[in-house]
Amino acid sequence: MDLATVIGLSLSLILVVGGIVAGGESSAFINLPSMLITIGGTMGAVIMANPVDRIKKLGKITRIAFFSQTPDLVSLVQTIVSFAEKARREGLLALEADASELDDEFLAKSIQLVVDGTDPELVKAILDTEISVLEERHSSNKGMFDTMGELFPAFGMLGTLIGLIAMLRNLDDPGSLGPGMAVALITTFYGSFMANIFALPISSKLAARSSEETVVRELMVEGVLAIQAGENPRIVEEKLKVFLPPEQRKELEERHDTEKGGEE
């Protein structure tokens, strides 16, 4: 589970709802027609703006923001370097069994292309295309939440206008103006609430996850091409370390020190 998403959402809900309750008259913030206009209207427009197949995956896409994990790049580098060592000792064909046991389909496919003797330029072209398609798919998924982030406030304002029109029809009753104005503004509150606590944060998290996955894929391509070129495993590792942030490079060195200590 992505703790940052869970903690951030929980904190926002607790503080906003807590602020409403602490201010008194929390029941004034509950209005079913306003919810229907803001949430129902937005979801209807999002459905209209996207293909049905993408809408069917909305739940699955939302889960990515809550349950995906940051990839372990250090372990991935160690795995690819171990493949480079094995390929230098036993040849590229020795990696075929390892490829079939990998959980990551992209890395397994990359290794298999190399084992099959595919031309290096063709391997790179195929894998780069896969990364481009991946980024396009992620961008489309993120776009649904960007659309929600834009439409929630828009439908909130629409609900406010509807409320104001209804209120102006009762100008002959001054006592109803205050409550009427409050109800009209609730839809604006709902729109801002849903956009800033739900849609826009999830869109940002999806963008971050997409960026992480792209870096992982590019690291794999670099490593596989280096293996195919028959480069020294130490050089392969140095190439892949470029993809690691400083703290993970230090972690990789610490793992090496631990392994050397165990061998001694």
- SS field, number of helical segments: 11
Main sheet makeup: none
- What is the element string, with H for helices and E for strands? HHHHHHHHHHH
User: What amount of the residues lies in strands?
Assistant: under 5%
From the alpha-carbon coordinates, what is the Rg to the nearest angstrom?
Answer: 26 Å
**Overall average pLDDT:** 89
Distance between the termini: 38 Å
Q: Structural class of the secondary structure composition?
A: mainly alpha
Total beta strand runs: 0
Poorly predicted ranges:
none
How much helical structure, as a percent, in the residues? over 70%
Question: What would you say about this model in short?
Answer:
The protein has helices at 3-22, 32-49, 52-56, 58-67, 73-90, 96-101, 105-115, 120-168, 177-228, 233-241, 246-263.
Lay out the secondary structure.
Layout: H1 3-22, H2 32-49, H3 52-56, H4 58-67, H5 73-90, H6 96-101, H7 105-115, H8 120-168, H9 177-228, H10 233-241, H11 246-263
Spell out the key features of this protein:
single chain; 264 residues; mainly alpha; 11 helices; 0% strand; elongated
Describe this structure in words.
The chain is built from 11 helices and no strands. It has 264 residues and is mostly helical. The protein starts with a helix and ends with a helix. The mean pLDDT is 89.
